[in-house]
User: Fold these one by one.
Assistant:
Number 1:
Amino acid sequence: MEIRAIEARRYIKDLSRPMNIRIDHNSSVTLFSVVEKNVANVEFEYTASFGPVGMIKFEGGFIYEGNDAEEIAKRWQEKKNMPNEVASQIHTAILHFCVPEAVFIARELKLPPPIPLPQVKFDASKGKKGKFGPEVV
């Protein structure tokens, strides 16, 4: 898997005051074409949108190998879709590759990381009296 283009922007200059920022992830397949028997080239776009605060966009591609590559490519050319199981695998692979890369770019732009970070809570009502323990949500 490779990234061919990166576009990233922070729209707001000052992020010093706390804000609720919704981060949306979107991945789309832009091309699915046969390279040789059982091998296809997949091109994609991934976008992490930080609402009015910023965005990170990747364009890239990878090689898909499978006995069904020709059938999927034909379906893609005709209908611009693919079987749900294959689509799930492809979009999961895109997210698993792009989200960690987006974390580093977000840090450079001083944007929040595009992943949910665990929150630690201390709850006195659970467990024995007087004992506190971390609960990861």
Number 2:
Amino acid sequence: MLITAENLRIRDLTGNKTCLAFLLAAVTLLPISALAKNIYKFQDENGIWHFTDQAPAEGVEFETVYMEREPEPRLKIRRDGRKESPVYLLFNDFWGPVEVELRFEEAVNVLSEPPLPARFIIPAQTEQTLVGIGALDQRQGFSYRLGMSSIPGRPMSKQIEGMVVLPPFAATEEYPVSQGFQGEKTHNSPDAIYAVDIAMPVGTAIHAVRNGTVMDVEEDFNRGGTNFEKFADKANHVRVLHDDGTMALYAHLDLASVNVRPGSRVRAGQRIARSGNTGFSSGPHLHFAIQQNTGMKLISVPFKFRTPEGTATIPEEQRFLKGASKDAAGKP
């Protein structure tokens, strides 16, 4: 996953003196959803051209124009309370828990409840109060700047070990591993050390490796390339939360190819999307990782893929990976 940042500016009256700016710098490892839609261009029977985000009637010839707007955060902060004693709440728009750390980057004559820094676990689809802020000396104004970091998943004290899962494609297929664990190209950060890249044609059916709940979906991007700054946050993906708290990440998916919705349950072996070449990518492939939150730190964890014979194998680079049926998988 990639670090993204966003800023929200809010004005607060500080005491009875001046009006100061409050800056929330939200730095997060969570995926960001892009507000993007296809625009359909077609001509009606009177020769009038229409441009709309609603698909035309069946049988009408049309062209599709892709429109992409700036990302919108899935974590949404809201101010409540009085001007001299604001309270900040956070809504978690993901379908899984998020851990948040809130801290003062700057503080002058400030009192907070709870004292900062503090960590919070925000359940899925829930708004939760984070902090109340006021002046330490009521006779004086106060100013502050907050910083917030967030990590998907509930914090887990121990790293999960010994995980065996289905390959993320049909049992009848096989594909080469183009980058394995600790790959020197891009698998060198804690969240990707135990990730695997599987080379496959665009449009290949991607299957869930374990049972779980769809925590997040992004399918609005249609481009990819090797320019990191341009494409780093443009990878379509599905994040599935497993019952043990780990999360599977399926990334670089094709445009509008996801056929599971956020909040839905998926089962091992179920088709969930199509592979693609979106985001920071040098060619069509699936980036797959199993991750967990170890306490404000997102890490990838080692795993093995089930083989057709029912054994387990480590996905080694430059070797072909064969699909396996649910019968061979036991209980992934």
Number 3:
Amino acid sequence: MADNVLVVHGGGPTAVINSSLYGVLKEAKRQPQVDKVYAAIGGSEGILKERFLDLLQYPEEKLKLLLKTPATAIGSSRYALEQEDYEAMVGIFQKYNIKYVLLNGGNGTMDTCGRIYEVCKDAGIRVVGIPKTIDNDIALTDHTPGFGSAARYIAATTAEIGADVKSMPIHVCIIEAMGRNAGWVTAASALARKKTGDAPHLIYLPERPFDEKEFLEDVKRLHEEMGGVVIVASEGLKNEKGEPIVPPIFKTERAVYYGDVSAYLAELVIKKLGIKARSEKPGISGRASIAWQSPVDRNEAILAGSVALKAAIEGKSGVMVGFIREETADGSYKMHTELLPIKEVMMHERVLPDYYITDRGNDVTSEFIEWCRPLIGPELQEFVDFQEEYVLWRE
């Protein structure tokens, strides 16, 4: 009897989560023992409600659309599972002859992956994790599918806003980037720069305590020098006590909702410095944009899905697909995949290391730029510098 596969998406989508799903389907077609590839519609809750859809029923031309489809084509959730839920899954998997369970997600999903592995390990059901998160905060792996596209988006957006601010240099613009505890996406805005003086002019990360006095000093100095200032700040900035700089606006038993850091900082600039300021919050656009999808990210996401299913079929379980970067003689980008023990990955958050952050804590180092640059794909569009080449009135 042929065996079935189940793919589950968890947490917030990325621009390439569907590419990993496509990678699973591509590999399934190469494996004669695979009959159906079920999608759990709506994430882990879809397992318990047995909302399964066989994706192999669709023709290849439709499945290929997954590579350019934003969000998640099969739905996701942040459903809180209890121990009895995990135990109930074993019988559901057996009912549908599901032998391979692949969970695609971030830290929380990898924790779920480890817990499902524990209840399934004696039932002959193999469980493998596919990493996914724009936050790039999963332990052990060099980077995660989803990050490269989010990095490309924030870099492009910062470059475009930078061109706008430079054309009318009268205010401070603060862009808020996703990543509450890890500043990888915020840091990637530095890839917008082509030359000295390009935006972003300041970068603030959650890995360093936010110093209001130094922030205002930096903004004042740059505004006097340049007129227009572009700042990228993480949504998770905290003070020296480890408290968010923006107080919570609403709390529930399971969640805390914060105000916008960018709006808070813009208001601070206006009140304390008397300088015109505005805030920008791309938000979900930063993880949904297909227009700025990184082809490197897309191809690695496909690979992660393919490797995950192949590993499960070969008997591996309780592991996650990881990316390991290789050193090359010419400095070119090269990586390979490895299977990482899920127990060593579960809920271990990977933050930006100190050597990627400047001493003052308001920018990133050249080492970060070198690490991040290959992940976003082709060079961003060159912006014509009208101010320097044509606008003579400023002189």
Number 4:
Amino acid sequence: MALKPEDDSGIAKSLRDVAPYLGLGLQLAVTIVAFVLIGSWLDKKFSQNYIFTLIAGLFGIGIALYNLIRTVTYLEKRSKLKNEKK
């Protein structure tokens, strides 16, 4: 007899609840590293000493944190609406 989604164990439900959050750390890191690499490339192109790397890195951190906060807020709203419907 196959289990229905309502019959899932507590572990399966927990994994389903936490799944949207699992990629956020990777997304944060990739954004920051990408901006640091762009800054490094600009430093080499314009023969500067880490100024573009610093600026792009800080910009990347800001964008990554903004995106993290926006995503978590959206996921929390969605979770709250889902719980209210039950």
